[in-house]
């Protein structure tokens, strides 16, 4: 076990270095990302706005500091928007588009409707960036920066965000319904869903650790309390005390919008308590607990390691966020930079 921990730690650190160094300043011939028309494919890199909008990072952080001070939960909500965006048709801000004559909004999908939140914070950031640097900073890059800064302001790790994404002119309600794993997903469902995005089991466990902040609605975990396997019985992997607490929050009938912290010990602090709770049978969602109980040695061992070593979790979380943020970006001359994140230009 000790050898496994050391080996995994070395792999994680080496892989992180390779990921960050690959965010270079050049460009290559290629497809230009999803939905592209071919031609130049530009790399993402952290200094993309160094000359065109050098104050971009400061503007994002200043708005977020106020928003999170007013409502700490908004940090988790904004992280979730970025994840739900990237899993649909790449990190292209398609999730921010409202319904229009040409767009069927992803906001109406099953995983997002009456659940996804924080759009007003994105609107405020975009408005301030437009005042400072007209039509320069993409909504897709705003989402990536907001996700990172939300983690930092919640006590989590900092990482350099590769930038240079452009915004999609389309959305996909169908892909939003299909590609985003549901809260009652099995471990195999989760692995398959992440693999489809080019993410592996290490990324799955690390990114799931984002649930160390935020809340979930009763409807997301009700099945575990009352009918886990279609037999009107609770999930037997639930800690009994935790089970009775959750029943008080989430009744068998009604109360679907009642909420419970994903990490009941420190719901506003980004730490590794989420993994400790999973070890104790106190993971809130089925998709949380199956990382340990789903009979896959890799995810089980990673849960144990991150529960014991917060620093290793932070390193891997940052690496996996960079990797996820690189899913099929629109770059170069593909897509556009929206003036308003809610509609195409």
Automatic annotation (TrEMBL):
Active site per database record: 84 (proton acceptor)
Cofactor(s) essential for the protein: Ca(2+); heme b
Superkingdom in the source lineage: Eukaryota
Residues involved in heme b binding: 211
Matching InterPro entries: Haem_peroxidase, Haem_peroxidase_sf, Peroxidase_pln, Peroxidases_heam-ligand_BS, Secretory_peroxidase
Cofactor note: Binds 2 calcium ions per subunit.
Domain Plant heme peroxidase family profile: 43-345
Family as reported in the entry's similarity comment: Belongs to the peroxidase family. Classical plant (class III) peroxidase subfamily.
PANTHER family: PEROXIDASE 72-RELATED, PEROXIDASE 9
Protein name: Peroxidase
């Amino acid at each position: 076990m000790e050898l496994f921990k050391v080996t995994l730690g070395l792999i994680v650190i080496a892989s992180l270095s390779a990921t960050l160094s690959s965010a270079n300043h050049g460009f290559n011939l290629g497809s230009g990302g999803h939905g592209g028309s071919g031609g130049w494919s530009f790399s993402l890199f952290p200094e993309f706005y160094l000359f065109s909008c050098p104050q971009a990072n400061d503007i994002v952080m200043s708005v977020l500091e106020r928003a999170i001070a007013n409502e700490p939960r908004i940090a988790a909500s904004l992280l979730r928007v970025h994840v739900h965006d990237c899993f649909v048709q790449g990190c292209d801000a398609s999730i921010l588009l409202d319904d229009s004559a040409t767009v069927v909004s992803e906001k109406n999908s099953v995983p997002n409707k009456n659940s996804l939140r924080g759009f007003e914070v994105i609107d405020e950031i975009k408005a301030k960036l437009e005042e400072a640097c007209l039509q320069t900073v993409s909504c897709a890059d705003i989402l990536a920066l907001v996700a990172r800064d939300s983690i930092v302001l919640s006590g989590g790790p900092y990482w350099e965000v590769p930038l240079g994404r452009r915004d999609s002119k389309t959305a996909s309600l169908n892909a939003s319904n299909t590609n985003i794993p549901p809260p009652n997903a099995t471990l195999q469902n989760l692995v398959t869903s992440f693999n489809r995005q080019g993410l592996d089991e290490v990324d799955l466990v690390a990114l799931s650790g984002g649930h160390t902040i935020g809340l979930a609605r009763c409807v997301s975990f009700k099945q575990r309390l009352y009918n886990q396997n279609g037999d009107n019985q609770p999930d037997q992997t639930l800690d009994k005390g935790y089970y009775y607490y959750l029943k008080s929050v989430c009744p068998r009938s009604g109360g679907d919008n009642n909420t419970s912290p994903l990490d009941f010990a420190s719901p506003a602090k980004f730490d590794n308590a989420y993994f400790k709770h999973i070890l104790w049978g106190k993971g809130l969602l089925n998709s949380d607990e199956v990382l340990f109980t789903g009979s896959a040695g890799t995810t089980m061992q990673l849960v144990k390691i991150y529960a014991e070593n917060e620093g290793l979790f932070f390193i891997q979380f940052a690496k996996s966020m960079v990797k996820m943020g690189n899913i099929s970006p629109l770059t170069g001359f593909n897509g556009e930079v929206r003036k308003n994140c809610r509609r195409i230009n």
